[in-house]
Amino acid sequence: LQVMDSGGGLVQAGGSLRLSCVASGSVVSIDAMGWYRQVSGKERELIAAISSAGKTFYADSVKGRFTISISRDVAKNMMYLQMSNLKPEDTAVYYCAATAFWGQTDPNEYDFWGQGTQVTVSS
Q: Does residue 66 contact residue 20 with C-beta atoms inside 8 Å?
């Protein structure tokens, strides 16, 4: 399974960005995908996740501002994170990740990772 994320950039506070992630290969083994973010010197934090059954999870810090979605076919999963009303504290490297088990928040439980995409929100 390969995972690739993209879509980061520089945006002013209050603006919007959409991150994209494609998982290709043995996608039938994946039950959930999520978005983590990491600020330098801090632990990686799960901010949103979605299961194969459509269940969603949002961290309190992004609830109401970010929306996760996914589309699937036999060969790949496409996942998106629509980010609105961005704040300077949203500045981080954002990572797409995939796991065989829904309900995980520990990054060690996610087996497949994208390379990360930088999101910078200016005040």
A: no
